[in-house]
Every structure is written in C-alpha cells, then in structure tokens.
Protein 1
Amino acid sequence: MADVVHVLGEMLIQDPRALMTTMLVVLLLIRIMITGGKQGDDAKLLRLLPPPPSKLPIIGHLHLMGDLPYVSLAGLATKYGPDLMLVHLGAAPTVVVSSPRAAEAVLRTHDHIFASRPRSRVWDVIMYGQTDSCFSPYGDYFRRARKLVTVHLLNASKVRAQRPAREEEVRGVMGKIGKAAAAGEAVDMSELLHAFVNDLICRAVSGKAEGLSKLFRELTDVNAALLGGFNILDFLPSLGRLELVRKVACAKALRVRKRWDQLLDKLIDDHSRREDEDEDEDEDEAEQDFIDVLLSLQDEYGFTRDHIKAILIDMFEAGTDTSYMTLEFAMAELIRKPHLMNKLQEEVRRNVPKGQEMVSEDDLPNMTYLKAVIKETLRLHPPVPLMIPHFSLDACAVHGYTIPANTRVVVNAWAIGRHTGNWEDQNEFQPDRFIKTGASVDLKAPNEFHFLPFGFGRRMCPGLQSASATVEIMLSNLMYRFHWKLPPGLKEEDVDMTEVFGISVSRKEKLLLVPVKASE
Ligand code: HEM
C-alpha cells in the first residue's frame, strides 16, 4: 500500500493530468465491478439466465474465451446453458444462443425484437455512424438500407447480370492454375481464391478491378481485424467516457476510415462525372455497377454520400472473406478425403457437355453433390460462426427466461451446425447427409433451425445468391479442369485445419495444392 501511495505521490508532482486520468479509470473500473454493467430489474432478470462459473471482476468470463470463442462458447453451453446462457464479456452481458430451438425463438418467433445491432465505437467510426446495412441498428434507416441492398444490389437479376464477369474471372484463375500445372508447381489456393473473390466484388462495386483490387483488399483486411477484433470499449463501455481512452481505442479505425474516404470519394466523383456526361444514356440497372446504382437512388432513399460509402464498405467486408473461405475450406476438406473429391469430379464431368472448355452456369442445376459439398463445408466451417451480434429492442420471454431490452445476443451458428441432437457424426465431413435430407435443408428459407450459415429473419444474409453463384462456379471448375494433389511429403492427415477467429473465420495455414491437368 505504501508503494502505491509513493507512486501516486510521484505522479502528482510529475504529471498531475496522468494521475487524474489513472484515478478516473480506477474509479470507473470499481463502479463496473460493482454494477456488472446493467442495473436494477434488468440485472435481476439476466441473473436468472444460466451462467458459466468463475466470473472474474472487470473481465467477467473473458478469460474463458480461447482463441476460437465460438468453440469455447459451444463447450460452455453444453455444460451450463444448452439453449441460452449468459456470459459477461467484460461489462457487457451477452446472451448466447446455442440450440436450434432457441435460435428459432430468437430469429423467427421474436425476430422483430432481436433484429437490432449493439452500438460499438469502432464500428461507428468505420461504418460512418453504423449507417451500413450490417451494423445499423434496427429502425427506419436500417429498413431503407436493407431494401436498397436486397432489391437493387444483390437481387437475382443483378447476380445473373454478373455472370460474364464471374466466368471471365474464373477463366483467369484457370489460366494461372494451368501454368502451375504445366510447371508441376504448387498453387497457393488461399491467395488465389482470395484474389478471385476480391476482384469480383471490385468489379461489382466499381465496374473494374484493375488498379483497385490490391488497395481494396488491404483496406478490407484492416477493417476485418478491427470489426471482429477485441475492442476494449465494447467490453468496458464506461471507459469511453474518457476522451484519452476513446482516442487511443479508435485511432486505428480513424486512420483506415480516412483511407476508405479517399478511395471511395474518388470513385464516387468519377462515377458522378461520367453520369453527368452520359446523361442521355439509359443503362439498365442490372448492368450498372453498385456505385452507379447507389448514386441513381440516392435521392429516392434519402442517402448522404457517407451512407453510400458505408454500404459500399459492407459489400467488401461481408462479401469477400465469407465466400473465399468457403471455397478454401471446401478444397481443404476434399483433399483430405480423396474418394469424396473423386465423387464430386465424376458428377461435374458427367454434367458438362463433351469437349466444353469450362463448366458454365447452365451446367450447374443438376449438380446436387456439388451443392451438398458446399452445404457440408458451411455446416462445419460457417464463415461467420457467431453471426453478427443481435440486440434486443424490448424485453422478451424465451424458453422460460426473460431477456431484457438492450441486451446483446449472439447466435452460435457453429455450435448449431454441430448440435448432437440434430447431426450424426457431427464433426465428420459427410456431404451425403445433405443428399439424404436435402429437401429439408433449404438455405434460402430454412424450415428447421439446425443449419444457419446465412442466419435467418430480418438480418439474414442478403448475399446468399451472390455467394452461391461465386462458390458454385469456381468449385465446379476447379473439379472439372484439374486433379489435385498435396505437395510432396504431405499426407491427407497432415492438412492443418486450424482456424483463426475475426469477424469471419479463416484458416491459419495457407492451403498449398498441386494441380494436374484433368486429361493427364
Ligand atoms: C458464403 C458466403 C456468406 C456467408 C456464409 C454469409 C453469412 C452471413 C451471416 C451469418 C450474416 C449475419 C446474419 C445475422 O446476423 O443474423 C450475414 C450478414 C450479411 N451479409 Fe452475408 N454471408 C456470405 C456472403 C455474403 C455476400 C457475398 C454478401 C454481399 C456481397 C453478403 C452481405 C451481407 C450483408 C450486407 C449482411 C448484413 C445483413 C443485415 O444485417 O441485415 N454476404 N452474412
């Protein structure tokens, strides 16, 4: 104690402002420890929800979260709250939904109550006051943003209109793999598939990828780390009252926002100028890139330029890692199970007319095993395993508990996809399970809740069709054009499947595979 008094005395002499700040932080932390974040009746209601043991002061249950929080939460849920469980992540009480029946209650029965998003200082900076569609709280603005995204950017005719771009990009990738095959070299599939999806999104957003894709990819990566990373203010929000803490915690987000501003402002200006010049040309909306569409609807939807920028960032953030990781995990699973890869190759080759150079989108409808492989990949490796946090707008009774208003709710899609009551051999990659039960597992409108890689309800992923088109055409071509081997010396069981958690999941190790031309 004497030491503490001594240090404080020294600080008072040398830097009285630092001392004041330190004291304030300590007082705030003490307050958080006493109140646990929520107060009064809400705190009482929350206390009725089952928690895991060993909640610590200040950090709550954070110490129980391993590198992969969705795995840690699934383990804790099995023991302490199979349907619903309360964890304290710092001072933020969070209700974790881990069973299909609880997911149905939250995402279907009471969807209107749980359709909001919590506020986060970092999301606020990056997404222009959370005015994108992923992170915007539920309300009039969200409904407009969501309508614009679903009706004008990610609708079926837009996805169809992007077919030539998809086929061109796939052809480019096949060319690169062909060269590696000729040289007998391994291909870095992680890099190749990431660049492929990023280029496609660049083209959808701004009409071109050349000269832009590298920068977009860099910014998307920085965003992803910040959006899914540990943001101290989300867990100890009271600290946000201190300007210095706020500044430090948001500094990186502000820097990346500035870079997005420069890039997107330039692109929007170029598009506006072009629109003024081509005033008479009435381009079909399906043919327009996203910036053109957003500019043409800006007044109708009452959007500012910042709103447009937030929605554009969403497209990169939500669309890139999710789709490319699905492809990469599918290839990693298939290379570990050669008999399943053979089965898929056989189906793809059977459905492509003889002599055709590539799989075309017309060949895909009968490829049921391809779709089963993709579903099984999404079941075992949902790219957004905890979805995006939901937030309750009102108090709501769910399976005997009351979740108060303004509570953060996360749905563990990873745990649900491996729920023992619903899946046999739940940790095994067995695409055939979707052939047997195929009819009941419709991604667009699931009628059961044991498979939710795209979520469900008002916040369900609007990019499902776009993602399916991208993943199906690429995976089928990878199967059609090449045989695949592991680099010399590696065995199937050596493929490292370790995951890394951000806002979406990625693979820790790069996937290196050796292609061999299919005719050889
Ligand atoms: C395999 C690919 C994909 C998967 C597995 C996936 C999954 C998800 C999930 C789980 C959510 C959160 C749902 C919730 O919080 O309840 C989500 C939201 C979203 N996704 Fe996707 N996604 C994929 C691809 C895409 C693509 C390609 C786009 C667009 C280019 C996109 C755009 C969005 C948007 C805008 C949201 C926010 C929806 C809202 O909050 O209203 N996603 N996605």
Note: The pocket of protoporphyrin IX containing FE is lined by residues 133-134, 146, 149, 154, 314-315, 318-319, 322-323, 326, 378, 383-384, 387-388, 453-455, 459-463, 466-467 (CB under 6 Å).
Protein 2
Amino acid sequence: MEKIIEIQEVTKRIKGKTIIDGISFDVYKGEVFGFLGPNGAGKTTTIRMIVGLMGISEGDIKIAGSSIKTDFEKAVRHIGAIVENPEMYKFLSGYDNLLHFARMSKGVTKEKIDEVVELVGLTSRIKDKVKTYSLGMRQRLGLAQCLLHDPDVLILDEPTNGLDPAGIREIRDHIRMLARERNMAVIVSSHLLSEMEMMCDRIGIIQQGKLIDVQLVNDFVNGEEIIFEFEVDASERAKAVIQEALPQLQVQQTEVGILVSAVKEEVPLIVKHLVKEDILLYGIQEKHKTLEDRFLEVTNSKEGVVHA
Ligand SMILES: Nc1ncnc2c1ncn2[C@@H]1O[C@H](COP(=O)(O)OP(=O)(O)OP(=O)(O)O)[C@@H](O)[C@H]1O
C-alpha cells in the first residue's frame, strides 16, 4: 500500500496549552481512515493542521512526500476537504455552484464537472437550485466540489452530521466507493461509532491530544477474545462455578445465563465445569463486540497500544 499522508510527531500548542501531543501515523491510498475520540480530544485540530488551516508547533505533516511546512502549496494540492459546512449559493443551481468553484482552481474542465456530478449521483438534479436540495444532496454537492481538482486525499469532518439514515447511507456508500474505485485516501471524523464501524478500514483513537490506538477496525472490534453467552438454568451458581474454576476469565451474569469473555479453545472447559456441577446448559451464543464497546473499553482504561 502506498503512503499518502505521514503525520510525524506532530504537536500543537495554543497559548501555552498542549492541544495535540506528539502524534504520528500514516494514511494509505485506497483506505478510509477514521478519527475517533471524545469531545475536545483534538480531532478537529488535527484535521485543521492536515488541511493547512492551522500551523503546527512541532513535527511535520507530509502529503504525497511534500511537507506542509516547507512546501505548502504542493502539499495541499493533493487534498480535497470539507472541514466546516460547505459554502453553497442556495439560489444558484448545483451546476452553477460547481462552475463557480471550478473557476477558482486552475484547469477544471466542464467534462470534469460532469464527471464529478455523475460520481456523486446528482446528474438528474444538478440544474435545480441548491435551496431545493435535501441535506444529503447538499453534502454530495460538497463532495463533488472537493473532487473537482482530482485530489488524492479526501478529508471530511463529521460528514454525516445532521443527515437522516438514508442520507448517512448515501454518503457512506460514496466514501467507500471513492476509496475502492478511485484509490483515494479518505480521512473522516465522527462521533457516531456504529457509522465509523461500517465506513472505515482503520481507525485512530485520540484522547486528550494523544493518539492512543491505531488499528484495523476488524482487529480493534473483535480482537482475540469473544464474548460467549451460556444459557443456563441457574445463572448465579454458574457464575460462581466459573469464577472459582477459571478465575482468569471475566464472567457476568445476565437474565438467561452468563457472559464469559474467552477464546474459543476455552469453551469446552467452561462447558465441562458447568456440566460437572449439574447446571443445565441450553445453548451457547457468540456475542460480537461493537466498536462502541471497544471504544469505551479503550478510552476508559486510557491505555492503548499503537499498532502501525
Ligand atoms: N483556538 C483555540 N484556542 C484555545 N483552545 C482551543 C482552540 N482550538 C481548540 N482548542 C481546544 O483544544 C481541544 C481540542 O479541540 P478539538 O476541537 O480539536 O477537539 P475535537 O476532538 O474535534 O472535539 P469535538 O468532538 O467536540 O469536536 C479542546 O480542549 C479545545 O477547547
């Protein structure tokens, strides 16, 4: 995979306060990279530094090999971004808006405008005034605007904010398509964890200005341990039996039985202990953790390992 963004030991201080504290990670072409973190963690600040809206106190950011510090113009040329709400002229058509933006960047042809309109699925409505568009259509027009100069990287801060479920799905599908079919790197931030789980290939978790974890979404969510639910006739006793016999495992009582966080190889052992104590076992189910479960585990423990 080809690196397109390199964040190298970046620190940001504002009025003596450290907002971002020495973060480093890379983003590759063709992937959707999600930025997760509690409110005030530093997601927007990091994004603003990547797109060049804010200076860097220490460290460097390279885009397609060019430093944003020493080669700003060349570096940001590779980026298309929606950081604040895209500015649109509501009384103009979508097409006229794009024409307006096209005039501001060099070398954008009318064919290119038609191509991006088609790419974001707005062809049939592009001649209508923007004020008649739904929020989802406006977001897609914003996406089209970002794509006019053929960026390698797309940066979207909270792209699904305020959208209804259908709108969220539309934007998500477009983001994934741009990464897969156009080999673009897409960086998104969102506090909607279920959304990030569906949209991203990798996520970086930022907390109090530090990057505490960078992982593939699948590895992050599932890890090695799985939660198994054992449906039994006597859950309280079952919990006590497993805690006594296998004290290394985490056991939780539920309405129908017990939840045990374990690896698959440990399941026969758990069953053996339950059966030995004459506990009736009606079924075993695998419960997958959600990104939200894992996010809360990691941010609450404040410990994390950076897997590059
Ligand atoms: N210009 C500024 N002056 C002083 N403090 C700032 C400034 N910009 C950001 N901060 C502080 O930096 C921290 C990180 O803010 P940032 O907006 O990057 O967080 P965030 O992760 O995007 O949060 P949210 O999810 O709430 O948008 C916050 O504590 C914020 O108050």
Note: DSSP finds eleven helices and 14 strands in the chain.
